[in-house]
């Protein structure tokens, strides 16, 4: 699983966490969306905070590709 020494610090939003873990793992938005089976436009809406509540199914897919838990992505947002 993920090396927790690299967990983001502070109060980050879901979009911030998605971008943090995506860039930490070296993914482009397009590559992550493709590997997670998420439409690119949908993923971009999540990362750009254009969706208030991201789909749990898509967050789970992104978490799996990023090798983190869904809790790592949602933080204290829920």
Question: How are the SSEs placed, and which strands pair?
Answer:
Blueprint: H1 14-25, H2 29-36, H3 40-47, H4 56-66, H5 70-74
Helix pairs in contact: 2-4
Structure overview:
The chain contains five helices and no strands. The chain is mostly helical and 78 residues long.
Summarize the structure.
This protein is mainly alpha-helical.
What descriptive keywords fit this protein?
78 residues; 5 helices; mainly alpha
Instruction: List unreliable stretches of 5+ residues.
Output: none
| End-to-end gap | 22 Å
Number of helices: 5
Number of strands: 0
Mean of pLDDT = 89
Order of helices and strands: HHHHH
Shape: globular
Tell me the Rg in angstroms: 11 Å
The helicity comes to 55-70%
> How much of the sequence is in beta strands?
under 5%
Largest sheet: none
Structural class: mainly alpha
